[in-house]
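User: Can you predict the 3D structure for this chain?
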Amino acid sequence: MGFDWRTIFGPALAALVAIASIFVERNVVTIPDLAALFVCIVALAASLGGTTSGLISAAIALAASTPFLAHHGTTHSVYLPHLALLAVTTVGTAVITGLLRRRLKDTLRWREQHATAARLSAALDRIDIGIVLLDGDTRAEFINRAFRNFFSLPDEKADSKPPFIALMYHGRDTGAYELPEDELNHFIAERTKMMRAGDQTPINIKLRNGEVLRFCCTALPDGGRMLSYTPVTDLVRRTDDPADTDYYLSLRGGAHRSQINHLRAAE
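Assistant: Here is the predicted structure, written as structure tokens:
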């Protein structure tokens, strides 16, 4: 852990003022009560180093004020309430200033994270890979522009944080998938199952407009998911080999060979 001068600056300043005031008081000239100065030092300490630094400075101020008041010949009935008031004031100043400092730091950190997230969102909107970020409840926290274009997803719906299953049904209802109608529900159920399990097996999804997307799911540490849809149209359409039918069947979730042949005939 690195040295942080802000943590010890306040206590060091309080100790320096205390020592100097006692020396001047005893050897040079009588000085007035320094309670107000100590309160300012405590506030400075807490603003720089946090509540702990402020409380240490407050303790030093109280320790220094006790002999100072006693040297002035003040009776117990007078200086004890004075010390109690100083204790309440300095401790309260340390706590309140420390809390305000923490709140300010949290606000600045949130703004920095928000700015970073905004830059990242803008960057992801410029790539040609569809990206969807799901939270732990499988609701879409972010959907980039490429995905919206692939599946003709309106901005209003995309920004409403729809669940993953709603995105799948949207693709079904808009006829986005190149699949027979009786396969669609099974296809959606399998994709949803894989997503929930965090299965990272890549899946090729053929769209009605002729595009092919390679779907991949990545499990995130917070329980969410990152879904990517990479265009691989040229790679898949130009290299499909009838001898690899079983392989492509497995990518599509186990459809019947006859259904694949039907799709090829339709192409």
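The chain has eleven helices and five strands. The radius of gyration is 34 Å.
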